[in-house]
Every structure is written in structure tokens, then in C-alpha cells.
Amino acid sequence: MQPILANVVVDLFLKGGPIMYPLLLAAVVAVAVAGERLLWWFRQASRRDEALVAKVLDAAEHGRWEEAAKLAGSSQDPVAKVLAAGLEHRETSMEGAIQVAAGRELREAGRFIPTLDTLVTLAPLLGLLGTVTGIMASFNSIGTDELAVTKVTGGIGEALIATAAGLGIAITTLIPLNILTTRLAGLQADIEAAATTLQVAAQKQARR
User: Fold this and answer.
1) Residue 183 CB: number of other CB atoms within 10 A?
2) pTM over 0.90
């Protein structure tokens, strides 16, 4: 069964024309990037510690800065790491340190998302290009002495296969792209909320 399926896939690939090779490259890149990013977020989920972040913010609210810094520094939670950077520079530039640390964490979390976004747009365009070249091949066969139905239908088949491949890659890539974008937005919201709470706590303590 598997050899038959493999033969069918290879046959469709070859019938799709030259545009199938860049489409294959796009599919390989999409699978590799999506797999790496989903695995990264899976590992990141095990590092999240909302209870510890709450303890850090509670300690800061009550002016226990050393305790807050110690708790934040002992965690691999990205939100806690941002808070740790702010607490480390509390006496000089807390806001600046938070912005730098948050940018670093979000940049790491958002790696390759533009690549997936590009592939979602590029794959259908490549499929459309295959459609155009396939239809052109069909029209070139019309009016020649060697006119054959197989040549015309072959060009149309090439056009349909390329279009289907491009749309399939785009649709399949869109799912992990949306998942990763949602995760990134959630992490950004958590970092911003925690950082704002810490800065408010620092301002309250400064007024006392």
C-alpha cells in the first residue's frame, strides 16, 4: 500500500511541472520551521510559573525587593526573567531594563514567524504561476501539427496540480502560524501586565 501511495505522489509531483520544485522547497521549510517553533513553545510551556510570578509581584508590592529579586532570578519563566532584569536595575533604570529584557524574550519567541507568514503568501502565488505555465503549455499545443488531446489535458493537469499544491501548503502552514501568533501575543500581554504591576509597585514604594 505504501509503495503504491508513494508512486502516486511522485507521479503527481512530476505531472505538476517545474514549479513543483520550489513548492517542494517551500513545503520542507514550512514543516521544519513549524516543527522547531512548536517544539520550542512546548518546552517553554514547562518553564512557565505563574505562581512564582505572583509571589515576585507580591513581594515587590510590600517592598521586599531582595526577596522579589531572588525569586525572579531563580526562574526560567520568561516573565520572571523580565522582572528580574527590572529588579536588578531598580535603583537606576527599571523601565529601560524591562524594555530590553522584554524585547529579548519576545524576539526569541517570535523567531521565524515572518518566515511562515511569507510562505502562506508565497505558496499560492507559486501555485498560480504553475497554473499560468500549465495553461500556456496547453495553448501552445493548440494549432500545431502535433496536436494531441494528451498534450492539452497534460497542461491543464499541470495547472491544477500546481494550484492544489500551493493552496495545500498555504492552508497547512496557516494553522501553526495562527497558533504561534496567538502564543506570542499571550506572552507579550503577560510580560506587559507583570512589568506594569512591578513599576507601579516601585512608584508606590518610592512615595513612602
Assistant:
1) 19
2) no
